[in-house]
Design goal:
By secondary structure, this protein is mainly alpha-helical. The chain has 3 domains: 1-90, Gyrase A, domain 2, CATH 3.30.1360.60; 136-299, no CATH class; 317-496, no CATH class. The chain has helices spanning 3-14, 46-50, 72-90, 107-127, 130-142, 146-165, 172-184, 186-197, 202-213, 233-254, 257-320, 326-337, 342-346, 348-363, 368-382, 387-397, 399-420, 447-472, 476-482, 490-496; strands spanning 24-29, 33-38, 57-60, 64-67, 221-222, 225-226, 425-427, 441-443. The chain has a 4-stranded antiparallel β-sheet. A two-stranded antiparallel sheet has the order 5-6. It has a two-stranded antiparallel ribbon with strand order 7-8. Helix 14 packs parallel to helix 18. The radius of gyration is 24 Å and the shape is globular.
């Protein structure tokens, strides 16, 4: 089957299971997930969706999210959008039929699936606090920027390699321009997305944020010093755009409709622009500098310990929804230093998860249902998509989730130690982890050294997660309960097509 036909078939399989075209209110995608706004959540057939071969899992958050994996989601989404348009033009799609009843032979994995779903629901309820909802909105601003960060980051790495080798010297300046152009104007994109997220006019948010990167600000003095183009960076752009939204909304309430088209955009840019130039740029610049200084200090002085704590706590942070606060910090470090030293350490949480899943596989030799889930999800886990393993395996089992955190802690400590010794390991973009992070690695001692340290951290994370789970991940009762023969039914295997089990659950955002 051609790639286009395969992607369209996946989209066609998903659409009726989410209630048809008439039930879809919005469509978007991020790195790994198709995000759908739905009119009626009750029309969704979760179990049948999880049985679609290309679907790695589902999660319900502010939108209904279907995990398809990197690359696949970007190809399936346009096909899905086209099918929705066609369905709306014709007639509402019929409500989905129920999927096949679960086979008793897969009860063990289904029990884990049910526990994972319950934990997801509890986590969602706990995450619906004002702080976490705010952090989610911040994440919504930066997530659409990730593809450009990745593309430009890889080009920057390629350019650095060619410069070091002295190859294609006539091409490297062009590559440098491609890699740096987006980062030079990232504040504008942040301003645009911020205004869109907070309910303002996106282009006005971008216009105010553009002041930050305009070279002419070098002629302006604020707080007794000359401003620098880019001062305040993405944090300044975020603050400027939020201010612009509030000014715009105030204008919409008080400016007469006949004058709105002239007065509102003018006052929005004027007021927000003046506050940005004579306040926000300086304050945000100080905050951005402090973030970079603190990150360098933390890893230079407490490298191994800091890496151990960060790597060990990242999965719980994901469960609490607090990891979204790190996204602007990563972006600020990339903007300042060219890479974020935090991401490779946090990526070790995924390594611990992979090691823990491998240990569960060996500790449950008779449970073919869970073992099939692990075999299907491990390749994605190695590439940094650890979501199916978390809710489908480790978290419902309890102890293996804790021992996976132990693996992440040791992997993070390994990389943190080398940072303390002067070998910085960073990523030029956010989003990927696992093996997928190798093309984005950067540091202060060459790509070979940086890649070797990161690979060492992965191996340590795998090994520590495996050993901790193998020896401490199961109580006697838990082992007796799950280490029983559970051969999945032929119908279940046929439905999944082999690549994923129906129990590969929803993401935790790793």
């Amino acid at each position: 089957m051609a790639t286009e036909d395969k992607n369209r078939a996946t989209a066609a399989a998903i659409l009726p299971l989410v209630g048809g075209a008439a039930n879809v209110s919005s469509i978007a995608h991020c790195m790994t997930r198709l995000r759908l706004g739905l009119h009626d959540r009750s029309l969704v057939d979760d179990e049948a969706l999880k049985a679609v071969p290309a679907v790695m899992g589902v999660v319900e958050d502010d939108t209904y999210q279907i995990v398809l994996g990197p690359g696949t989601v970007a190809r399936v989404t346009p096909e899905f959008e086209q099918l929705v348009e066609e369905g709306r033009a014709a007639a509402p799609a019929p409500a989905p039929t129920s999927g096949p009843a679960p086979d008793p032979a897969s009860a063990s994995a289904d029990e884990l699936a049910a526990q994972g779903a319950a934990m997801k629901a509890a986590r969602k309820a706990k995450n619906a606090t004002p702080l976490k909802l705010f952090l989610r909105r911040i994440a919504n601003i930066f997530v659409p920027l990730i593809p450009a960060l990745i593309g430009c980051g890889i080009i920057a790495g390629l350019n650095g390699l060619l410069v070091n080798l002295g190859w294609l010297t006539s091409v490297t300046p062009a590559l440098a321009a491609m890699a740096s152009g987006f980062m030079a104007l990232i504040a504008v994109f942040v301003g645009y997305n911020t205004a869109k997220e907070f309910g303002g006019t996106p282009i006005l948010g971008g216009a105010v944020a553009a002041i930050i990167v305009f070279p002419g600000v070098a002629n302006i003095e604020a707080f007794g010093q000359k401003l620098s183009p880019g001062q305040g960076g993405v944090l300044g752009a975020l603050g400027a755009a939020v201010l612009a939204v509030y000014v715009e909304k105030w204008c919409r309430r008080w400016v007469p409709e006949a004058l709105d088209v002239l007065v509102t955009p003018t006052l929005t840019v004027l007021v927000s622009g003046l506050v940005t130039i004579f306040g926000l740029m300086y304050v945000a610049g100080e905050v951005s500098t402090a973030i970079g200084t603190f990150a360098d200090w933390l890893l230079s002085n407490g490298g191994a310990g800091a890496g151990f704590v960060l790597g060990g706590l990242f999965l719980p942070l994901v469960m609490l929804g607090l990891h979204q606060a790190l996204i602007p910090i990563h972006t600020t470090l990339i903007e300042q230093q060219g890479y974020t030293v935090l991401l490779p350490i946090l990526a070790m949480a995924g390594a611990g998860q992979v090691g823990a899943a491998a240990a569960v596989y060996f500790r449950l030799p008779r449970n073919e249902s869970i073992r099939r889930t692990i075999k299907s999800a491990l390749p994605a886990g190695l590439l940094g998509v650890g979501e199916p393993l978390i809710y489908g395996v480790s978290l419902p089992l309890g102890r293996p989730f804790i021992t996976a955190c132990v693996g992440g802690a040791f992997g993070g400590g390994f990389i943190g130690l080398f940072n303390q010794l002067g070998d910085k390991v960073g990523s030029t973009a956010i989003g990927p982890s696992g093996w997928a992070l190798f093309p984005l690695l950067d540091g202060n001692h060459g790509l070979g050294t940086t890649a070797a340290i990161y690979a060492g951290g992965l191996l340590v994370g795998y090994l520590a997660g495996f050993l901790a789970t193998y020896f401490f991940g199961f109580s006697k009762d838990l082992l007796a309960e799950f280490n029983v023969s559970q051969e999945p039914a032929e119908s279940t295997v046929a439905a999944t097509g082999g690549p994923m089990s129906p129990t590969t659950k929803e993401p935790a955002g790793v």
